Amino acid sequence: MRIAIGIAYCGVGLEGWQSQPSGNTVQDYLERALTEIAGERIGATGAGRTDAGVHASAQVAHFDTAAARPDSAWVRGANSLLPGSIAVQWAAQVAEDFHARYSAASRSYRYVLYNHSVRPALLAGLVGWFHLPLELDRMRQAAQSLLGEHDFSSFRSAECQAKSPVRVMERAEIRASGPYLLFDFTANAFLHHMVRNIVGSLVYVGKGERPPHWLAELIAARDRRLAAPTFAAAGLYLSEVGYDAHWGLPAFPRMMPFETTALRPMRSGSCSIARVRVTSRWSARVA
């Protein structure tokens, strides 16, 4: 049988999602825990391969097993074996043709940036930081250039293994909540370091070093050397993976320091997508 699970994790001290020889990744810890619960070797496939230091409030994975267990065993049992920074949020049996990565119609990332003259301490590792004042309206204007289908080579890392740099950006929004700037992006898929490279370039616009139309020029140039340096991993969260509603996946609980709505069907072209939307403000406390 095939089981889908929802996972949240704090990326501080972890080497990303994908398995590494060190064993210090989300996939490694998760597979070890699930293997013990199942009594057989389990391999998990995730919807997104987050980098070292990147967090997730809504990662989705699937695995196959012959072990019959109640959904609660996959959640509570696995969590009893996982480090405190990783927690399975839900589990559900799904159709055999469900695939956490290839069945996903969209991914959403949020970057949380602390815009203050002094670096954060209590939120170290959980937010990005920039010390100079940033102009929100300039960055919002620049972000509009990202919407639609584009070749995002200017925001692609040299290590990116994607066959094509073309992606469809559905959402590129920025808003402020006190000293925090929240950057929200939704696309059909993302290139390696794409969000962090976009945020870095938007910061250049926000501090006045580049004009808002510079983002459009970068897209047209398709040259990574012309864009800003890659921004820190600390503030990046995989905040949503969108699937067609017919898969019937459970909703993620409210856990981020922003409010989330209940799971509901949304339209993406001709496909009905079940999404968890992050809609309200960042607070000063991170769970």
Describe the protein's architecture and organization.
It is a single chain. By secondary structure, this protein is an alpha+beta fold. The chain folds into two domains: about 100 residues, Alpha-Beta Plaits; about 130 residues, Alpha-Beta Plaits (2-Layer Sandwich). It has five helices and twelve strands. Helix 1 packs across helix 2 and helix 3 packs across helix 4. The C terminus is likely disordered.
Encode the helix/strand succession as letters: EHEEHEEEHEEEHHEEE
How far apart, in Å, are the first and last alpha carbons?
34 Å
> Tally the helices: what do you get?
5
User: How many distinct beta strands?
Assistant: 12
Please state the average pLDDT score: 89
Specify the helix fraction band: 10-25%
At CATH level 3, the topology of the largest domain is Alpha-Beta Plaits
Largest sheet features: 12 strands, mixed
Using only CA atoms, what is the Rg?
19 Å
Counted up, domains total 2
* Unreliable segments of 5+ consecutive residues: 259-287
CATH superfamily of the largest domain: Pseudouridine synthase I, catalytic domain, C-terminal subdomain
CATH class of the largest domain: Alpha Beta
Strand residue content: 25-35%
Report the structural category: alpha+beta
Shape: globular
- The CATH architecture of the largest domain can be given as 2-Layer Sandwich
